[in-house]
Amino acid sequence: MQLLAGQNALPVQFAAGGTPQLTKTLDKAGQVLDLEKTLKDLGVWDDLQPAAIKTVENLYGKFNVMPYQFNIEGIWFNKKLFADQHLATPTTYDQLVAAAAKFKRSGVTPFAADGKDGWPLTRLVSGYLYRELGPDALEAVADGKAKLTDPAYVKAAQAIADLGRAGYFGKGVGSIDYDTATQQFLTGKAAMFYMGSWALGDFNDKTKNKIGADNVGFMPFPTVAGGKGSADQIPANVGLPVAVSAKSYNAEVGDWLSCITKNYGAASLKDQGTVSGFKPNGDTGTLPPLTQTVQDTITKTTTSTLWFEALFNTKATETSQTNAAPLVTGSLSAKDFMQKIQTDLDNG
Amino acid sequence: MRSVLGDRRAITVLLGPALLVYTLVMLVPMGWSLGYTFFKGNVIEGFTFGGLGNFTKLWNDPQAHSALWFTFKYAIAVSAGQVLCGYLLALLYVFVLRRSSAVVRTLVFFPVILPTVAVALMFQKLFAVAPQNGLANVALEGLGIHHGDWFAGAGGSFVVLVVMDVWRSMGFYGVLIFAGLLDIPEETLESARLDGATGWRLIRHIVLPLSAPVLLSSVVFSINGTLKVFDSVLALTNGGPGSDTTPLTLYMFRTAFSYGDYGYGSTIASLLTVVCLGVTLVVFRFSRRDLTKG
């Protein structure tokens, strides 16, 4: 993509993949279409979910990607396993850890986690950070007002490292990939699974979900004692967003964009059962109860947060994700983990 | 023949096309890359002149140091393993299996033609602890060795990586050295045997010196191949855990293409070039000394 951009040869739409940083760089070079202006000119701006607009702006500084997906993240749990252990849904972090300890003792893996990719683990670090320091915890790092090596930040990494040290992620977490983690949760081998709502497709799929869709519950990341954040500040993202090339824009692209903005929301819900950042206008079909829960949670959400690496540069993102497994297996200390990332942020 | 090769025009016609292609696809990009080392930035934002900034950064970059160290460690371990196993295989073919070695040769050579990614996936599963205990782990536990998660630490990942790459390439070195051993005249071996040299002494005093040239080429091949390792690391450990198994090549690739820092990536590439050149020179120096002795 960098090569295509260097030759002014980007396709009309391209994945704004990797980190927001790359899209910001492309934007600075005049390659990315300003979608706020375009969609307002086309008269379809009101067909977007306000929460999605906010999330995109949090990420990119302005609205310049198409939110084909809109996801919220949190901890999905196996209701039956919780009932078996006589556990209520945890609302504080201490309750969460206590529940994990109880599962471990009874031979159930408390958390399924994709340690191979690393991000499901670092999401727990940011989840803790947002509850402890409030929703602007990581913006402060991006603005240089705080450092990841500050004691309050190291404390969050330490909390997640402690989960790993207690064995709550099961054996060999660094070798578990996304599909294996999903499978562990959906076959009832693991009690909890931190994941985004994009996994609804798997949860609603009867061939994959052996525990039954009505057995899956959703809880937001619980509050941390004495913390500034609250559990209704839900991490949200726009999945794999797609940017539009400024150089290839013409009237036909405009027609296409306005048609998609008007109709994509309903079509996506109806055909794939996935929630997008567009308002569902028209026929959405009957939604599975889990999808409905997610849709309701999105409607209720007023403040959304980002994920751990959202505002990092590419190198810091990679450092964070590749070192997540060593953090929870104990071969890297919480302080060194944060130090490594901070070094990459300082040099970026 | 001399008159043809003494003619300048003939030389130009014969060498020109090849030299031109070589210059275009090898020398120009190399020079270009060397030029990048003095610049910062990438193709999207444009480049700014950075002087020797990339070189001082390289000198002070702990990640580059650990990548260089890992590259050496890996090259030495795998080269030693490849050549040693290859040599032992060749001895097995020539002296034990003799004429019937074709089937074994084919079987041992087989991993060489398998795609690296497939081999890496297989080794991941063999040494996995979750979701199922891998076959290699089961076997080791049968022997009373409990290692735990191989890929959780730098040491374990390194061992699996070396075992995999030696297994993957020893067949190739086996055949290479086998060809060299076939060149040893039967009469020489026969007369040595008549003089009472058998087993280890025959190998130590007759076979080893006579196969020194092919052994040396194997070492050069092997070291240069392993210093530039990329695919097997990427597929097996992706440089992890953390960056514990990241060689220079992978670090270079990430710096240039993932982090978008072409200048620094090129600087790492030039370090790799210097390392390869240096090692090759050292190996050749040794070889020359040996030849004058022999």
From TrEMBL, chain B:
Organism source for this protein?
Streptomyces pseudovenezuelae
Q: Which UniProt keywords apply?
A: Cell membrane, Membrane, Transmembrane, Transmembrane helix, Transport
Gene Ontology BP annotations: transmembrane transport
Q: List the PANTHER family.
A: BLL4140 PROTEIN, DIACETYLCHITOBIOSE UPTAKE SYSTEM PERMEASE PROTEIN DASB
SUPFAM superfamilies in the record = MetI-like
What does the UniProt entry say about where the protein is found?
Cell membrane
Highest classification ranks of the organism: Bacteria, Bacillati, Actinomycetota, Actinomycetes, Kitasatosporales
Residue ranges annotated as transmembrane are 12-32, 74-96, 108-130, 150-182, 202-223, 262-284
Q: What is this protein called?
A: ABC transporter permease
**Major subcellular site:** membrane
Q: According to its UniProt record, which protein family does this protein belong to?
A: Belongs to the binding-protein-dependent transport system permease family.
Gene Ontology cellular component annotations, sorted alphabetically: plasma membrane
Q: One Pfam family this chain carries?
A: BPD_transp_1
